[in-house]
Amino acid sequence: MKNKRLKSIQSSLLKYNKYINGKGCKVSHCFNDILDIRVFLEEYPNTFPEYFRVVDMREGKKDDDGYRDIHLYYQKDAYHYPIEVQLWCGSDIKFNIWSHTSVYKYVPQEVGLKLRKLYDMGKIKTQIQFENKLKEMMERR
Questions:
Q1: Are 107 and 98 in contact (CB under 8 A)?
Q2: What span, in angstroms and rounded, lies between the C-alpha atoms of 16 and 19?
Q3: Dist. CA 46–CA 12, nearest whole Å
Q4: How far apart are CA 30 and CA 141, in angstroms?
């Protein structure tokens, strides 16, 4: 199953203010995912065509918030923006969907990581359980 999306104006403004205004990053680095395609698979592939730059986040990101996937970037040349392909697989799909609606960019990353650990242990199985646990964690902060 595929899910194509264009980056929302709100998300683009957040990135602009954080990276271009705040840190002076280049536009091409800040907006590396204006167009992305999410592909939902049962298993992650082990090999990729050479024209992709692969960012493997199956074990987490540098600043881990529980999100897991593989990003593939393709850019024809310097005159074109890159296209991002996100591979979401297996049990990561549910968690990524839940976290994108209420955790990603909205709460501290350590909250997302704690939720992920509970999810992996089988203590969170539904979106309602996820949302209740998130609410509980945020109330304790």
A1: no
A2: 6
A3: 31
A4: 31
pLDDT tens digits along 60-69? 998 899 999 9
Per-residue DSSP letters for 97-129?
Answer: HHHHHHTTTTS-HHHHHHHHHHHHTTS--SHHH
Question: Which of the 8 DSSP states describes residue 21?
Answer: I
User: How many structural domains comprise the chain?
Assistant: 1
Reduced to 3 states, what is the DSSP secondary structure of residue 32? coil
Range of the domain at 31: 2-140
pLDDT in tens, 1-51: 555 555 566 666 666 666 666 666 666 666 666 677 899 999 999 999 999
Angle at 131 between CA 125 and CA 137, to 5 degrees: 110
Q: Could you give the count of Cα atoms lying within 13 Å of 93 in the half-sphere of its Cβ? A: 15
Q: Which amino acid is at 104?
A: Y
Phi, psi dihedrals of residue 92, rounded to the nearest 5°: -65, -25
Q: How far apart are CA 33 and CA 4, in angstroms?
A: 12
What distance, in Å, lies between the first and last C-alpha atoms of the chain?
38
